[in-house]
Amino acid sequence: MQVTNLLARSRQSRVYLVLLCEMERPDMRTGEVVTANPVFRSITETVVDAADLNEVYNDAVDKMMESVATFEMCGSN
Fold it and tell me: Per the structure, how many domains does the chain have?
């Protein structure tokens, strides 16, 4: 996996992951497509020699997916 390989080379570093995406939804009144470009960020993790890199990655993805779900619940669909 590319991300965990990068994390393996970044031992003794503080890292976070960022997801930038384009989301679209139709405006119910006008039918126009509304586009948003939200940025979702994981928590900052310290990658130490003993860290399980898959766990660091999975925790980061889980946090970003929670943020995506929250964004969608706030009306973006």
Answer: 1
Which residue do the tokens 């994981």 mark?
Answer: 42
pTM value? Answer: 0.78
Range of the domain at 10: 2-76
Question: Is the pLDDT assigned to residue 4 strictly greater than 70?
Answer: yes
Q: What is the dihedral of CA 59, 75, 30, 19, to 10 degrees?
A: -20
Q: Give Cβ neighbours of residue 33 (< 8 Å, ≥ 6 apart).
A: 24, 25, 26, 27
Q: Is the pLDDT of residue 40 over 90?
A: yes
Q: State yes or no: pLDDT of 50 exceeds 90.
A: no
In this structure, what DSSP letter does residue 10 have?
A: T
